[in-house]
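User: Quick sanity check before I run a bigger batch. Here is a single chain. Can you write out its predicted 3D structure?
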Amino acid sequence: MRFCLALLAGLFTSVLCAQSQFDSLLTPLLDPAMKPFYFGVASGDPHQTTVIIWTKVWNENGKPVKVKWQVATDTTMQQIVAEDEVTSTAGSAYTVKVNVKGLKAGTIYFYRFSTGGVYSPIGRTKTAPEGDAESLRFAVVSCNHYEGGYFNAYRLIANRNDIDAVIHLGDYIYEYGANSKNKKSVIRLHIPTHEIVSLTDYRSRYAQYRLDKDLQEAHRLHPFITEWDDHEFANNTYKEGAGNHQLDKDGDWEERKGIARKVYFEWLPITDNDKSSIIRKMNYGGLAEVFMLDGRVEGRCKQLDSPQDTLLSCETRTMLGKEQSDWLTEGMKTSTARWKVMANQVVFSEMDAHKLSKKYAINADAWDGYPVERKAILDSFYHYNIKNIIVITGDIHLSWGFDLVQNPKNKERYNRKTGKGVIGAEFVTPSISTNGLGERFPRGLCNLIGSIVKQKGSNPHLRFQNLVDHGYMVLDLNKERAQATWNFCKTIRKPSTRFKAKDTWMTKYNDNKLVKVIAPKNK
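Assistant: Done. Predicted structure follows.
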């Protein structure tokens, strides 16, 4: 018995040494049936003829490992259309990323990996269509905080067969340490238990999130198109620092930012590039063009502390930076897609909260804190008569639907009944599990806050809101209309696939104003 225990202890120690890039607390979370592909498979950045496929091998000897990959048109992996072998090393934490080429547009494919004669789970992905696509459906998600609750929305997304891709708008992980003191709001604790700063820390946090079965299944069955927000780095990130980064405690910011960027590209099925930039366009067959933005580390100036700060109107303060802003406006101007989709981290539309608080009359971390750059972008849209713009947004942990319009309080410029001045819509997705108003205040108080915010005198362009529920959003596009459906989970405090409610709003092509979609009653 002692010999067996000693042998097991030796094996356990060797595994930890070989996988020293991870926190040892992860070991009990590993499912032996998944070895060595504990973290499943994923795909992303689907184009007409290419797609990224991803996995991670748990390598127990620390040496380079050869991994075979296959892509097929059938679930039994008999009709192979592409295959090859790659070598993975400790330099990438034994993550494997392959840009599969030579595929057909608008086609469902299946893929898997193998090493040492052991196969990974079989994944499913889909390439983007070309030509005149009839319709598209994107699941839009944001803010999956492991401690906040279970990722039930990802299981609901995984169970759907009508999703072309999942667009993740950021806060894929959270950098905070374990909040063991707040037992009411914390459902499960972070690993490592301290705030993540080092390479091992960031890798361990991604590993913990990717061991979640619901998130794994959503990745296995749908391609993801991702961008980061602040918590992939640190809370309230900007180009030269972050609100949750102190030099004396957390070290050099550029070093931490570089680590966070590297680990993001290791763990997400995003296309590698020389700059490790998330800025890119995704074309969906003329029906939609999706502009993936970086509103955090590319060109963002530090957030202001007060809406009364005289620097608020400074022309040099940017969120995107000139190069990215020019790229966006030029891309919008020249796009021939029916719908132009801005995948945007923080709320783009004006939001007046002065009746709730003078100190927090605006959210300085959102576009309200960068009004000059926002005005320049909107000015270009109006100048070139660009319409049918859809802004999809995360970050705020609330659900909102806005008429996209400049100067919404100016009655000469905007009429919510006729749609005068409206050039599109902004749809804000709820958090997957990050705490929002519903965890801080009773529902009655949340409803009161909502009624104050939605007053026409403050925010006449705010057409829909839900301030308490978690879930995901589906952006449904066809040639006639763009439609957002908010899908809310019954609970996140325990595993569940029960819906709570749905709300749907749409904007018609070239009409743009938001209209509530009334579901037909069951007879």
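Residues 408 and 414 are 6 Å apart (CA to CA).

User: Great, the batch can go ahead then.
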